[in-house]
Amino acid sequence: MADAAVNDTREARPAGTERPARRVLVAADKFKGSLTAVQVAERVTAGLRRVVPGLEVEALPVADGGDGTVDAAVAAGFERREVRVAGPLGHEVTAAFALRGETAVVEMAEASGLQRLPAGVFAPLTASTYGSGELLRAALDAGARSIVFGVGGSATTDGGAGMLSALGARFLDAEGEPVPPGGGGLAGLAGADLSGLDARLASVDLVLASDVDNPLTGPTGAPAVYGPQKGASPDDVETLDAALAHYARVLEEAIGSRAAELAESAGAGAAGGIGYGALILGARFRPGIEIMLDVLGFAPALERASLVITGEGSLDAQTLHGKAPAGVAAAARAAGREVVAVCGRLALPEEALEKAGIGRAYPLTELEPDVGRCLADAGSLLERVAERIARNHLA
């Protein structure tokens, strides 16, 4: 009952006038482990319309370059294209990219993500990004002249060597044989030859879309920060860091000082260092949510909205560092739009939300404190949360 009575601040209006119709934009990311971004938008819309029948709601599922990026592009009108490529362990998988005109959205996790590993299996030293290179090649074959390369959720720490190999580069050991796949194999790298790279790459606008800005190696590099998430032990992290540093030195011998400079650049350490491989190809680094909002057509959708609902599974400190809700809220605030967020759990204080441009957050755990039940019943709980939003902000 409290929700229905909250802040009934409707201003008195002259007789015969009506409140302008409100239009809601739902621009939320996935709730990892329970709902896709598309499902989040569907459930929020259903809940809103139970309280405000006929409400105009525009759904624009968003992603920050990590897993779910292709699905977000398809929901925004891109065509889904599927192709058989190598998974992180070399087995063949069906992966997708999105295409609209000459613009492609390629998600490395589709080919080389953790979800491509068998349950409970990690391969920190041997997992390869070869399939991600095959995905990029498929986008080129489809006529793409502009490619948004979303990276995140990787199973790999090979510095993008596998991806570059699929695109025509050669990485050889002292006997002139290809080094084994994965970051561990780069320890035996003796020479690199990039002269065979696909010539079409030179005329393509390649954008590296990531929500992290780590360098390739060192205390904040790919192995140290993200290796443990991929099953790397402390010894594995040390091995991978040394191997990637060696890889960068060999590339410096092949293409000059640019290789060393790029290893220190923002985004080089993204997705196990595949960001470095993309930068070697000439990619421009942009925050994932920033480029995805452009590609998905967020600005015109925002113009049509009076209330924006964003969110993701967990609103926490990481959200504030380039995640989708922070990007959505920043753009909406700049346009003078009211923003609220939905989430599974909330781990940010009110001041941090306000600073990010989010007026209020609605966590599912307020309705169901048990996390297990919350995950299992996320859809119906989200509809109930959306009803609360409608009563508090729209009714």
From TrEMBL:
Transmembrane segments: none annotated. The keyword Kinase applies. This is Glycerate kinase. NCBIfam families: glycerate kinase (TIGR00045). Pfam families: Gly_kinase. Keywords: Kinase, Transferase. It comes from Streptomyces glomeratus. The keyword Transferase applies. The lineage of its organism: Bacteria, Bacillati, Actinomycetota, Actinomycetes, Kitasatosporales. GO terms for molecular function: kinase activity.
